[in-house]
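User: Show me a protein chain along with its predicted structure.
Assistant: Here is one chain, sequence first, then structure tokens.
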Amino acid sequence: MAVAAPVPDLADRATDCADRLREADRVLLASHIDADGITSAAIASTALARAGVDHEVVFEKQLDADSIAGIAAREFDVVLFTDFGSGQLDIIADHEAAGDFVPVVADHHQPADRDTRYHLNPLLEGIDGASE
């Protein structure tokens, strides 16, 4: 018997993101250094380890153009952003277009006007990720 996804509207996005992460040789996991950022990074790191995906974890106080450039300079093909990234998709998408990395964003904050293929955010499906 198939198990229903906890948030059915996000199931396809979540599957797409997970598939891309599993295909990666290694992943840089970048997260916000606050309670929900540390928690989401711990969960994501555990999931990556269970899937056998080699990864490193970095924490940022703020995700801005300089910190994203520093992340891009680390030369990972895939970067997983947790608890931030949606609001910075304009900057992230520029790095993606330049071939610096493939972003996978798992966030609940207000998205910027740009998007990327691997973007998991309940707000994209009309669900308030801060309160629902």
